[in-house]
Amino acid sequence: MNSQVFCCPACKSRQINSLESVPTSEIAKFWSVTSLESGEQLKKYLDSGKAPSTVDMAKCCDCGLEFATPMFAAGEEWYTEEIYTMRWEFNKTLEDLKPGSEILEIGCGEGVFLDLAVREGHSALGVDFNLGAIQLAKAKGLEVYCWNLKELSERLPSRKFDAVMFFHVIEHIEDLETFFQELSQIMPTGSSIHFSCPSSNRWTTQFETDRKVGLREVWDYPPYHQTRWNPVATDKILSRFGWKLQKSLEEPFDWRGMSTYIVSKELAAKGLELSVLSPVERKIKIATKMVKTFMPSIKCSGMSMYYQAIRQ
Question: What is the mean pLDDT of the chain?
């Protein structure tokens, strides 16, 4: 176990086991296939000493959190190609918000969720360090800033929020202590947080084997992801900072959707598209893939875990 690991970032247990070690050069090689710019950036991190030669992953024996040791997160330059889309958990969050809430989204990107929230009658503000995404969100008429939480507190010291949300953000954060401390400063008692992260049972771990660099997909390691969460670990860290976990939901598994994606990917490898098939051929291929993936996918979920908690 790496000497820098002293305790679990979630529950502070010292009962830590080594999970796996992956050469950072292998992670860079995989990233180069997906995004040449990201792969080159990681190589620069290695050459400059910002990234260790090996990514060591550990697991807490008490809460089950998996985390990198040491953690090393990519800078804002890594996220210039980030794609922002609709997520299953957006509607779950909107269902849980009180009418007319004052909300903040951390990592708002181009404002996909904020736009929905404003349309629902909420007062919304967003922050992100991706300047390009912020400019696109501003063009939609949204109140967004290229700030972090500390800058938000300094520039708008009187601003408090009924609810804060951060979707697929927590797994990227190196300094969880500071993040939750700064979050507490802008949220009064009774306010809520709504957030999501990758589900440990997501179907891609089972079926996207060509994207695995170790036990998980390449994006589930630093410099992209630092931690891998589960409901127990999430409850532990929330409790430490005065939050009461109210809800944890796993995104339902879309069996047909996954099968369609896999068929499309297989065709793409041959230089073909799903649209070139006749409707009958398309249905047969997808149905055949559904039959083949039925047993392996029984315990699979969708991509996300959604959590809601109340400040005590």
Answer: 93
CA distance 161 to 262: 42
Q: What residues have CB less than 8 Å from 16, skipping those under 6 apart?
A: 1, 5, 7, 8, 58, 59, 60, 61
Which structure tokens are listed for 50?
């910002």
Model confidence pLDDT, tens digit, residues 256-275: 999 999 999 999 999 999 99
For 211, what's the count of Cα atoms within 13 Å in the CB-facing half-sphere? 16
Which residue did the predictor score with more confidence, 282 or 3? 282
At residue 222, φ and ψ (nearest 5 deg) are: -60, 150
- Bridge partners (DSSP) listed for residue 197: 305
Neighbours of 174 (CB within 10 A): 16
What is the C-alpha to C-alpha distance for residues 108 and 129, in angstroms, rounded to an integer? Answer: 9
The helix-helix angle for 36-48 and 24-34 (nearest 10°) equals 160
- Strand-strand pairing, 243-250 and 304-311: antiparallel
pLDDT in tens, 193-223: 999 999 999 999 999 999 999 999 999 999 9
Query: Helix 279-293 crosses helix 255-268 at what angle (to 10 degrees)?
Result: 110
* Whether the model pTM is above 0.85: yes
